[in-house]
Amino acid sequence: MRGVIVPLVTPFNEDYSIGVPALEEHIDFLQKVGVHGIFINETAGEFTSLSLEERKFLAEKGRELVNSAFYLVGAASTNTFGVIELTNHARDIGADYVVIAPPYYCPLKEEALFRHYSMVAESTDIPIILYNIPSCANPLSVQLIKRLALEYPNIAGVKETIDSVNHVRGVILEVKGEREDFVVFTGLDQHFLNTLIIDGDGRIMACANFAPELHLELYKTFQEKRFEDAFLYARKLTELSKVYDLASFFGLAIKLAMNIRGFSIKPVLRPPYVIDGDNMKEEIRKLLKKVLY
């Protein structure tokens, strides 16, 4: 698995129910433009606002719809047995990978994190992508990632949503250096190109919900060694990543950007998230006009 993976937003109706038609439309669009993977039940998808039954429903619905890309399912939880349940559900419905962020809310030492992931890895044979997102959960050190990757063959890669080239470099050199099949993805638009340059495998970024063409073109031009064009798209993505700073919750910014670009997904968030003022939507509109048109 390499390339452009899209972490899906979860569409909601005004009554906060899941907007299934909008989800179907969006997955169809992403497959038509040629993304390499589709990832459901993750941060941009507001998974913490979903019940266990809704997460399973979305995982099953996504499996029905995704047929021309890798299919990834998020299985993060604050408790290990919940992660095991979601992981094996993803395996049973035929997902290609599960993506597991560390437990959040409770601070854990490295040995506790190792035991957590070990119990999950030993309970299943589905490939696992670790999700390092220290702004939201316990951080995963390079040494912990390496220890897990060398101990468990089904721990297949990591998504690095960390603003540190040195950390990503460490994972690539120390983990991929000993396990060539271990994949490393960035979760930050502004680090897409440099991750590819240092032998990373791609990106998993929320902006690809509304602007997948930029991510796909950067990946394509880099693979074709058209580096001037790759630099151009990298600069565009760096500018576009400002969208995350324009809303109190970045998922709202993504949904508003999709709404501005004509997608049917509504800018509706489940509580406790709130909708910011109209001036923020105008700021997003200006940013999209500057970068995309």
From TrEMBL:
Predominant location: cytoplasm
GO-annotated molecular function: 2-dehydro-3-deoxy-phosphogluconate aldolase activity; 4-hydroxy-tetrahydrodipicolinate synthase activity
Binding site for pyruvate: I204
Localization, UniProt: Cytoplasm
GO CC terms in record: cytoplasm
Keyword Repeat carried by entry: no
Top-level taxon: Archaea
Listed CDD domains: DHDPS-like
Active-site residues, Swiss-Prot/TrEMBL: Y131 (proton donor/acceptor), K159 (schiff-base intermediate with substrate)
Cited Pfam families: DHDPS (PF00701)
The protein, known as: Dihydrodipicolinate synthase family protein
Organism, as annotated: Thermococcus piezophilus
